[in-house]
Amino acid sequence: MAKVERQQFIQDLRGGQIRLEDAKGDAQLKGVNVGRADLNGDGVVRGDAEAEALFKALDAVDRDGKRDTIESGATPAGRAHRTLVGLIRPVPTFDNPGRPIVTSEFPTLNDLKKELDITYRDGEVEVGHSKEGLSETNTLSDDLIGEAELKSAKKASADWGLRDMVGFAWENPRLAWHRTALQNTEKLSYVAKNNSGSALGRISEAMFDNIDDKPRATPYRGPGGKKLTQHDAIKNMMLHVFGQAVLTTLYGESAADLAGDLHERDQPSLITGQIGKGEEAQALDNYADMVNNEYGQELGKELNRRLGVGGSTRWTPEKTAEYLNQVQHYFSQTHGWSFRDFQPNDPRVEKFTNLLNEVQHGD
Fold first, then answer.
1. Alpha helices in the chain (DSSP H)
2. CA–CA distance from 204 to each of 76, 220, 232 (Å)?
3. Sign, Cα dihedral of 65, 67, 68, 70
């Protein structure tokens, strides 16, 4: 008799989902506890972990005596399997997701300028990506201090008096307003700055590792002539989009935008447009980062609506895995990659859950 293997069943459910409401009361599913496979309680079975749990529920009514296969013929398990496959529906897609920039696809700054909308004004530069339907733009202004200057001010502040502190806050009101968010952004960005052993970059690296069909590691030259590959460019894009999505979820779009702008502000020629030959590779990278930050902020707002998360969320491994898998689904839609899902019991998910709760709730 023909068999259905566990891994094939999990693969069949990737990119799709089964609503518990659709499975409720179906006579062909008698004895199959579909609800038990909804590990995060969101009313749908979606992702590798829940697909595996659903296969286990199918195996409970199977007669072949093996944990990794079920009979696919005219048996209770076979009929239930066919019914469940028929209930698979596509995971809801993102409206107008655009296509975040992978810098290795643009050999020169001029090539990138043909793709993006870059407008120079007195004291600021505005960067957009209308070609891909991105409705928002990112503006970088010369009235914002850069990351290097901020670090210098932070070091000097140990000797500041009250007048110095008030003066700095008066000159940089956005920094003062979003001070807590910026401090927590540092914790989210560096393992050494937190107690949870995780960071945004570790998760974005894990997302890249989860790609089933990775593109070739085509070499190219990055800023400073550094030897890089397309894999490095993809990882950087994913870090900016994912990182900005998380910051937007936790602290809102304004704080996320400020954190991103501080990182890009250290190259003044980005704003003036007077970019020397030796700066072009770095400028290409910075302009791409600015657009990808905007994509991340839009994604963060959408995930807040979809998942009901925000600044007050108490994160669980199940909720974190769902968030991360939604980000991967977004990248599947924008770039056509297939991903392996994060699972709640993955140590990387557990550590990142702890980090989210550490920066939000002081855990």
1. 6-13, 20-23, 48-59, 76-87, 109-115, 147-156, 162-171, 173-177, 179-189, 200-209, 230-251, 253-264, 269-272, 280-307, 317-335, 347-361
2. 42, 21, 12
3. positive
Query: What are the DSSP calls for 31-69, one per residue?
Result: T--GGGG-TT-SSEE-SHHHHHHHHHHHHTT--S--SSE
Residue carrying the six token digits 């925000």: 310
User: What are the tens digits of pLDDT across the range 210-261?
Assistant: 998 899 999 999 988 899 999 999 999 999 999 999 999 999 999 999 999 8
Secondary structure (H, E, C), 62-84: CCCCCCCEEECCCCHHHHHHHHH
Taking only the tens place, the pLDDT of each residue in 332-349 is 999 999 888 898 999 999
Place of tokens 């019914």: 83
CA-CA distance, 309 to 304, in Å (whole number)?
5
Which letter, b or e, does each residue of 301-314 get, where b requires 16 or more Cβ atoms within 10 Å of its Cβ? Answer: bbbbeebebbeebe
295: nearest Cα among 143, 133, 126: 133
- Cα 249-251-255 angle, rounded to 5 deg: 120
The burial of 80, by beta-carbon neighbours within 10 Å (0-12 exposed, 13-18 middle, 19 or more buried), is given as: buried
Residue tagged 């990882």 (tokens): 235
Band of pLDDT at residue 147, cut at 50, 70 and 90: low
Q: Yes or no: say if 18 and 91 are a contact pair by the CB < 8 Å rule.
A: no
- Cα–Cα distance list, 46 to 41, 57, 283, 289, 315 (Å): 11, 15, 40, 31, 19
- DSSP at 166: H
**CA–CA dist 185, 258 (Å, integer):** 11
Q: Return the SS3 of 276.
A: coil
Long-range contacts of 33-40 (CB under 8 A, 24+ apart): 33/57, 33/60, 34/84, 39/318, 39/344, 40/316, 40/318, 40/319, 40/321, 40/322, 40/344
Which residue, among 288, 89, 256, 283, has the nearest Cα to 185 in the 3D structure? 256
Q: Taking Cα atoms as reference points, which of 108, 336, 139 lies closest to residue 234? A: 336
